[in-house]
Write a structure and sequence with these properties.
Pfam families: Acetyltransf_1 (PF00583). The protein is 37% helix and 24% strand. The chain has four helices and five strands. It has a five-stranded mixed beta sheet, sandwiched between helices. Strand 3 and strand 4 form a beta hairpin.
Length: 145
């Protein structure tokens, strides 16, 4: 049984392990202090929010999300990070996390919930194709530094 809920102070180490797994998957280097800074931001809950998935009381998945203004509609909810421990995959944790974020977006009155993933992330995309609609957009990043 998968349960979702807010992260707790005692989740700090498990959260970091999952966050590092997520960043490793996306080949993104984050210095140690970046994890501390993100944990602070998540526990403050002002700009970036988090939810965890638990199996047998153990944190096995995380989702980070934020709300932002849009020009043509109500605020949007961006599901920035979603990661489930490899050993816990296939048991509904990712779906449960998406639904929990969707619930938060509805409560906030957001116009939409969206996320991005790598084109070759076929395992995740199989789930995403069942719970969401791919609208054909491709993301580009313009270097700022």
């Amino acid at each position: 049984m998968i349960e979702t809920g807010s992260l707790r102070p005692q989740d700090r180490a498990a959260w970091e392990s999952l966050a590092r797994g997520y960043k490793r998957f996306y080949r993104t280097d984050v210095p140690d202090e970046g994890y501390e800074r993100m944990w602070r931001r998540l526990t403050e809950g002002n700009e970036v929010h988090a939810v965890g998935a638990r199996a047998d009381g153990e944190l096995v998945g995380i989702a980070h999300y934020l709300f932002h203004v849009t020009g043509w509609a109500a605020d949007s909810c961006y599901l920035q990070d979603l990661y489930v421990d490899e050993a816990a995959r296939g048991r509904g944790a990712a779906r449960a996390l998406i639904e929990r974020v969707a619930e938060a977006a509805r409560e906030r009155g957001a116009a939409r919930l969206y996320w991005t993933t790598r084109e070759d992330n076929v395992t995740a995309r199989a789930l995403y194709d069942r719970v969401a609609v791919f609208k054909g957009f491709i993301r580009y990043d313009h270097p700022l530094g």
